[in-house]
UniProtKB/TrEMBL annotation, chain B:
It comes from Terrilactibacillus tamarindi. This is VWA domain-containing protein. It comes from the Bacteria. Pfam families: VWA. CDD domains: vWFA. InterPro entries: VWF_A, vWFA_dom_sf. Residues 1-91 form the VWFA domain.
């Protein structure tokens, strides 16, 4: 039984052009460039017979295999894909030891994090709605995403659709969450357990919403619950969704679809109110004001014309009289 | 249905031992008793203490566990991650042992083709979720740890959130070192409720030397009393029989 202490620095560095040869399935891949590094692995863009692919490497085989197990389940699913399509799983034998890897579809796009920075807040609603739909399907399949955060979500370049990327934290319902990030974790905020249940993911969705409005992560204070409630009630971007966000905070949504419906309903409602306000504004007040303004302006013009005429007559009169 | 028990010592310290036996030797001794030793080194702003880091690494190596050096503010997430990783590691060790018994000497999980490995990993995941866990928390309260203790308390409460979210049973106990005229003092005996730590922590006195080795030796004994009392672990029998469903 060999058990070495694992250090958490697991970044694998590969140079462009490096050839990866799979021990079991005998496929070759050529590294193009580094795409990203997470807590449990490193992702590279590579050439293959199928074209461009993304390859994830990890020195810790357990987390990689768990992720592969999840991705395999998605392959059989109907409809929009829940995660990247899985092509290959293999080992690469190097002179420094065996490195496990899996090959997946390359999803072109930007992370939700970048997208939030560059696009308007109205896009956040759309992405949240899409995300809740995907989460609903994932929960139905018997899993909770776990490590839900903007860096793990990608907005595709082709059709502006949100896609989940890193399934390392994806946990079977009822088990304890495998991986999480403090800011998005309800345990950190003292708002519940780390048991994998839909409400765990929905809390993270709420935190993504808060993050998108605040544009930063903040640390918890002495009273984390009150702190979050305060944010929701005072940020003008969050205030309209207060009821929904507070419900998600308290873990009272038990299905992603319930939260989605609540958002949809709220957005329709706000749209209706907003359009009613603007309609009223265009119909009555602004035009009335303009009309009044015109009236006063013409009044002033009239007065000054009269003044000029009177002064002119007076001048003419004095001139004629004196001469 | 007996799924066995995983026994861990979680040592939280900030540096070098300066009294008594070599802590790595005591960690190796713990391993012989079927107890894994994990070490977390708490540093303030990455004080570079090479000797301290090396010792932390050595203790975990000898104790078959995981070690990690962190800044005080990252402590919470690290404590739960280390505990979890060590648990998976132990289970994988046991599963690998089983595989070797079945498939022959050189076989381990990594020698299986990826497809089969996936199935084995599901079993490992499942065991990690359902196995009973006994963690003896051993906190260094020597003088230099004084300012770090509130964060340690926070991290242990956080650990309790993670562990109580598991399906398996948990038992915790808390010792600090140095103790009064002894290597350690028992702060809390075995209990399933780690949040009791919250109250006892405020009363902790800090100061004195760092007898890490003797402290580990001391707490090994606490496990045998726990198993006698709770009858959770039937010594090593649970491991030898492997998982049963």
């Amino acid at each position: 039984m060999t058990m070495k202490p694992m250090m958490m620095d697991q970044d694998i560095k590969l140079h462009p052009g490096t050839r990866i040869y799979g021990k079991w399935h005998k496929k070759t891949y050529q590294i193009m460039r580094h795409l990203g590094s997470g807590a449990q692995g490193t992702v590279y863009l590579a050439h293959s017979n199928q074209g461009e692919v993304a390859i994830k490497f990890s020195k810790d085989p357990s987390s990689l295999i768990s992720e592969v197990n999840i991705l395999k389940r998605f392959v059989a699913l109907q409809g929009d894909p829940l995660g990247p399509y899985l092509y290959d799983v293999d080992d690469w034998v190097t002179n420094k030891g065996t490195i496990n890897f899996y090959v997946m579809e390359r999803i072109k796009g930007v992370t939700l994090d970048d997208s939030i920075r560059h696009k308007g807040f109205e896009w956040v609603y759309v992405f949240i709605l899409q995300l809740l739909k995907d989460l609903s399907r994932l929960h139905e399949l018997g899993f909770v995403f776990g490590d839900l955060k903007p860096e793990n979500l990608m907005i595709t370049e082709s059709n502006y659709r949100i896609r989940c990327l890193d399934f390392g934290g994806t946990t079977q319902l009822g088990h304890s969450i495998k991986e999480y990030t403090e800011f998005f974790d309800r345990g950190y905020w003292g708002m519940g357990t780390r048991k994998a249940e839909p409400s765990y993911d929905l809390f993270a969705v709420m935190m993504i919403f808060i993050y998108a409005a605040e544009r930063r992560r903040f640390n918890k204070t002495e009273h984390p619950r009150d702190q979050l409630i305060q944010k929701i009630k005072t940020n003008p971007k969050l205030k309209p969704f207060e009821k929904i966000l507070l419900k998600a905070l308290a873990g009272q949504f038990h299905h992603a679809n319930d939260m989605r419906q609540a958002f949809l309903y709220k957005m329709n409602e706000t749209n209706r109110i907003e359009s009613r306000i603007t309609r009223r504004r265009t119909a009555t007040s602004p035009s009335k004001k303009r009309y009044q303004k015109k009236k006063t302006v013409s009044g002033w013009i009239g007065a000054s014309v009269w003044a000029v005429v009177i002064i002119a007559l007076y001048v003419m009169y004095t001139v004629l009289y004196v001469m | 249905m007996n799924k066995g028990t995983i026994k861990q010592i979680l040592l939280i310290t900030d540096g070098c031992s300066n009294q008594g036996e070599d802590p790595a030797a005591m960690a190796a001794l713990a391993k012989e008793h079927g107890i894994v030793v994990n070490v977390i080194g708490v540093m303030e702003n990455y004080e570079t203490d090479d000797r301290g880091m090396k010792e932390i690494d050595n203790i975990a190596s000898a104790g078959g566990g995981v070690s990690q050096v962190v800044q005080t503010k990252q402590l919470s997430q690290t404590v739960q991650m280390v505990t979890r990783q060590a648990m998976t590691q132990t289970i994988k060790g046991v599963v690998n042992q089983e595989l070797q018994d079945i498939l022959g000497d050189s076989q381990s999980m990594e020698d299986l083709p990826p497809e089969k490995r996936g199935r084995v990993m599901e079993v490992v995941d499942d065991l990690g979720e359902t196995v009973n866990l006994e963690v003896c928390i051993l906190v260094d309260t020597s003088a230099s740890m004084k300012t770090k203790l509130p964060t340690v308390r926070e991290a242990l409460l956080d650990l309790s959130i993670s562990l109580t979210s598991r399906m398996g049973e948990n038992q915790f106990c808390l010792y600090t070192f140095p103790g009064k005229r002894k290597a350690t003092s028992k702060i809390m005996s075995w209990t399933p409720k780690i949040d009791h730590i919250s109250q006892v922590f405020s009363k902790l006195a800090s100061g004195g030397v760092t007898p890490t080795g003797p402290a580990i030796r001391d707490v090994i004994k606490s496990f045998s009393t726990s198993s006698r009392r709770h009858l959770i672990s039937h010594d090593d029998e649970a491991y030898d029989d492997g998982p049963r469903y």
